[in-house]
Specification:
Blueprint lengths: L3 H6 L46 E3 L5 H11 L2 E5 L5 H15 L3 H4 L11 E3 L14 E5 L4 H7 L5 H29 L4 H9 L7 E6 L9 E6 L5 E6 L5 E5 L3 E4 L7 E5 L1 H6 L9 E4 L7 E8 L6 E2 L15 E2 H10 L11
Parallel strand pairs: 1-2
Antiparallel strand pairs: 2-10, 3-4, 4-5, 5-12, 6-11, 7-10, 7-12, 8-9, 8-11, 13-14
Helix pairs in contact: 2-6, 3-6
């Protein structure tokens, strides 16, 4: 069964000239470079509807299914608590993420992502779709990070690999499976279909470490440009620095305030298709309003093997599907050419 990482390495998914992969040496920057200045004329005003916030859901509540289902329908995102991942482990993951991005630039570049590669250090993958660069550096893990970790810490790589990141990945996968079962029950998807989807979950789900360093001119910089995720669910740990926003139709950009111990969960494109557009694939971004300090986050993308065919499930009462069947690989190709509205290209 093909993997998403193999699909990413296919040059057909890079229709434009690849942008420079190497992030800025942020420690050496005193002023915001013109390459990172986002024009005010673009629709990236840093508004925030402060009185609204995404729901926070206790996974131990008896009505958790309805709460999660309603949040996916109305918000496309929620925060989850009592999720079973120890707070100590979250702190350790954040500490290791900080340790990685605190390395000198020349050291981080030893683990630079190759142009067609899926893992390692580099700019945000969505950079190719925008004329300006984002104030961001990232590190992608898929499977064991040992190879890159050895390059970064030749004598001290095991803590990053086995003791923390691999343990974290296992616990995130368990949480994602729990959330997906709750969601499939809410959508009345049959046990047979649920098992078929479950058997196609990629064995090497990407984990994305993100750093948004101190910015000398945060009002003119963008941490991460607006986009949706190509996943079933994305589970995000963010540190205490604000910046993540989601877009709610009819309302505007809403800040997702960090909550100690909580994880942010958002709906991706693949779950949007499976739910027949009942769940919203949420547009989100990172702004630099509080960039006087480094902001860190760690995202886990719960997705499907690239040769799996995705289509609306759980339809009843003569309900018509809004989307045709599409393989994950085909959808990745569509999105690589049409990031603004890829779902429209599989609409019936």
């Amino acid at each position: 069964m093909a993997t998403v990482s193999e699909a990413y390495q296919d040059k057909n998914f890079y229709p434009h000239n690849l942008p420079q992969i190497i992030p800025l040496d942020f420690d050496a920057i005193q002023t915001l470079p013109e390459s990172h200045v986002w024009p005010e004329s673009d629709d990236f005003q840093f508004n925030d509807v402060g009185q609204l916030s995404v729901p926070t859901i206790d996974l131990e509540k008896p009505d958790v299914g309805n709460l999660i289902g309603h949040a996916c329908e109305t918000w496309g995102a929620f925060q989850v608590i009592n999720h079973g991942i120890p707070l100590e482990l979250l702190h350790e993951v954040e500490s290791e993420t900080r340790r990685l991005f605190s390395l000198p630039s020349r050291q981080k570049l030893k683990a630079l992502r190759s142009p067609g590669g899926a893992t390692g250090y580099g700019r945000a993958r969505i950079s190719q779709f925008f004329t300006k660069y984002m104030w961001h550096e990232g590190f992608t893990i898929m499977g064991s990070p040992e190879g890159h970790a050895r390059l970064l810490w030749p004598h001290d790589y095991r803590r990053f690999c086995s003791d923390i990141m691999e343990d974290y990945e296992k616990k995130l996968k368990e949480l994602a499976r729990t959330l997906m079962q709750i969601i499939f029950d809410y959508l009345a998807i049959s046990e047979e279909e649920s098992k078929r989807v479950g058997s196609a979950i990629g064995s090497k789900a990407p984990i994305q470490l993100n750093s948004y360093p101190y910015c000398p001119d945060p009002d003119r910089a963008m941490g991460l440009a607006p986009h949706t995720d190509t996943s079933l669910l994305t589970i995000l740990h963010q540190n205490s620095i604000k910046g993540l926003q989601i877009f709610k139709q009819g309302v505007g950009w809403i800040l997702v305030n960090p909550t100690s111990g909580a994880l942010v969960v958002n709906v991706g494109d693949l779950l949007h298709i499976i739910s027949n557009a009942k769940f919203q694939s949420v547009v989100h971004r990172v702004v630099m309003k509080e960039a006087k300090q480094q902001r860190l986050s760690v995202a886990y993308f719960h997705s499907l093997a690239s040769d799996f065919d995705v289509f609306p499930m759980g339809l009843c009462c003569g309900q018509s599907p809004f989307y045709r069947s599409v393989s994950v690989a085909e959808y990745l190709g569509i999105k690589a050419n049409n990031i603004d509205n890829p779902l429209s290209f599989v609409r019936i």
